[in-house]
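Researcher: Checking consistency across runs. Here is Sec-independent translocase again:
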Amino acid sequence: MFNIGAGEFIALAVLALVILGPEQLPKAATQIGRVLRQLRTMANSAKADIQKGLGPEFKDFDVEDLNPRRFVQKHFWEADDEDDPGARRRPAAQLNGKRPPFDSEAT
Protein backbone atom coordinates (compact mmCIF):
# COMPACT_ATOMS: atom_id res chain seq x y z
CA MET A 1 0.00 0.00 0.00
CA PHE A 2 1.48 3.36 -1.10
CA ASN A 3 4.84 1.59 -1.68
CA ILE A 4 5.64 1.74 2.04
CA GLY A 5 7.77 -1.04 3.44
CA ALA A 6 7.51 -2.52 6.93
CA GLY A 7 10.42 -0.47 8.29
CA GLU A 8 9.02 2.76 6.92
CA PHE A 9 5.58 1.94 8.30
CA ILE A 10 7.02 1.33 11.78
CA ALA A 11 8.99 4.59 11.59
CA LEU A 12 5.81 6.49 10.64
CA ALA A 13 3.88 4.86 13.50
CA VAL A 14 6.58 5.81 16.03
CA LEU A 15 6.71 9.35 14.64
CA ALA A 16 2.91 9.66 14.90
CA LEU A 17 3.04 8.38 18.47
CA VAL A 18 5.70 10.95 19.39
CA ILE A 19 3.92 13.85 17.69
CA LEU A 20 0.33 13.10 18.69
CA GLY A 21 0.87 11.27 21.94
CA PRO A 22 -0.88 8.13 23.13
CA GLU A 23 -4.10 10.01 24.00
CA GLN A 24 -4.68 11.63 20.59
CA LEU A 25 -3.39 8.81 18.34
CA PRO A 26 -6.58 6.67 18.36
CA LYS A 27 -8.74 9.72 17.58
CA ALA A 28 -6.44 10.76 14.73
CA ALA A 29 -6.42 7.22 13.31
CA THR A 30 -10.24 7.15 13.42
CA GLN A 31 -10.47 10.48 11.60
CA ILE A 32 -7.93 9.42 8.97
CA GLY A 33 -9.84 6.18 8.38
CA ARG A 34 -13.10 8.10 8.03
CA VAL A 35 -11.56 10.53 5.51
CA LEU A 36 -10.06 7.69 3.45
CA ARG A 37 -13.42 5.89 3.43
CA GLN A 38 -15.18 9.07 2.24
CA LEU A 39 -12.57 9.59 -0.50
CA ARG A 40 -13.00 6.00 -1.69
CA THR A 41 -16.79 6.44 -1.75
CA MET A 42 -16.47 9.69 -3.71
CA ALA A 43 -14.11 8.08 -6.24
CA ASN A 44 -16.42 5.10 -6.74
CA SER A 45 -19.38 7.45 -7.14
CA ALA A 46 -17.53 9.55 -9.72
CA LYS A 47 -16.55 6.39 -11.62
CA ALA A 48 -20.18 5.21 -11.64
CA ASP A 49 -21.37 8.64 -12.82
CA ILE A 50 -18.86 8.62 -15.69
CA GLN A 51 -19.90 5.12 -16.77
CA LYS A 52 -23.58 6.05 -16.50
CA GLY A 53 -23.04 9.25 -18.50
CA LEU A 54 -21.25 7.42 -21.30
CA GLY A 55 -24.27 5.22 -21.90
CA PRO A 56 -24.70 1.53 -22.70
CA GLU A 57 -22.23 1.65 -25.61
CA PHE A 58 -19.38 1.97 -23.11
CA LYS A 59 -20.56 -0.51 -20.48
CA ASP A 60 -17.18 -2.28 -20.60
CA PHE A 61 -15.27 1.01 -20.24
CA ASP A 62 -12.69 0.98 -17.48
CA VAL A 63 -11.58 4.30 -16.00
CA GLU A 64 -8.06 2.87 -15.66
CA ASP A 65 -7.86 2.89 -19.47
CA LEU A 66 -7.51 6.68 -19.25
CA ASN A 67 -4.06 6.23 -17.73
CA PRO A 68 -1.61 6.84 -20.63
CA ARG A 69 0.66 3.95 -19.60
CA ARG A 70 -2.25 1.51 -19.48
CA PHE A 71 -3.57 2.82 -22.82
CA VAL A 72 -0.24 2.17 -24.53
CA GLN A 73 0.07 -1.29 -22.98
CA LYS A 74 -3.44 -2.24 -24.02
CA HIS A 75 -3.22 -1.02 -27.61
CA PHE A 76 0.41 -1.55 -28.58
CA TRP A 77 1.45 -4.64 -26.64
CA GLU A 78 -0.08 -8.07 -26.84
CA ALA A 79 0.56 -11.23 -24.85
CA ASP A 80 2.10 -14.27 -26.56
CA ASP A 81 -0.66 -16.48 -25.20
CA GLU A 82 -4.00 -14.81 -24.51
CA ASP A 83 -5.02 -17.64 -22.14
CA ASP A 84 -2.02 -16.98 -19.90
CA PRO A 85 -2.33 -13.52 -18.27
CA GLY A 86 1.24 -13.80 -16.94
CA ALA A 87 2.68 -14.48 -20.38
CA ARG A 88 5.73 -12.56 -21.55
CA ARG A 89 4.67 -9.52 -23.52
CA ARG A 90 6.10 -8.35 -26.82
CA PRO A 91 5.52 -5.40 -29.14
CA ALA A 92 2.60 -5.78 -31.54
CA ALA A 93 4.95 -4.77 -34.39
CA GLN A 94 6.92 -8.01 -33.92
CA LEU A 95 4.00 -10.43 -33.85
CA ASN A 96 4.21 -13.71 -35.80
CA GLY A 97 8.00 -13.47 -35.92
CA LYS A 98 7.92 -10.67 -38.50
CA ARG A 99 9.83 -7.48 -38.05
CA PRO A 100 8.51 -4.17 -39.32
CA PRO A 101 9.98 -2.95 -42.62
CA PHE A 102 13.26 -1.08 -42.25
CA ASP A 103 14.94 1.20 -44.75
CA SER A 104 18.57 1.85 -43.85
CA GLU A 105 18.74 4.81 -46.23
CA ALA A 106 15.76 6.53 -44.61
CA THR A 107 17.51 7.03 -41.29
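Researcher: Does this match what you'd expect to see?
Model: One thing to look at in this run: The helical segments are 6-54, 68-76.
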